[in-house]
Amino acid sequence: MTDSSATIANRGRPPKGDQPMTPAERKRAQRMRDNRAAMNAIGDEQNAPLRALLAVLGRVEASEPARLAAQRAWAEIGRRYDFVSVTEQSGAEKTPSRNKG
What pTM was estimated for this model as a whole? Predict the structure, then answer.
């Protein structure tokens, strides 16, 4: 009998670098992807993934533009899941400002 040592390749996708990522590095990369998707969702709510729309909703109290983006995100979620009927797209110029005297 011959003893041939065959190398068995590891299963799964090979690592992108020299070594596999640690769990902390994977989570950091996921957070960066989620933040980037949320930023890209602002203004393009119809094509944004649900996770990004929910992230936009989480920033509703940050500022006035964030509140308007959250309104658009909520309208898009309602349109997708048929619980909000959007008849008119509200514009920023029609929104009353608290700063006007």
Answer: 0.59
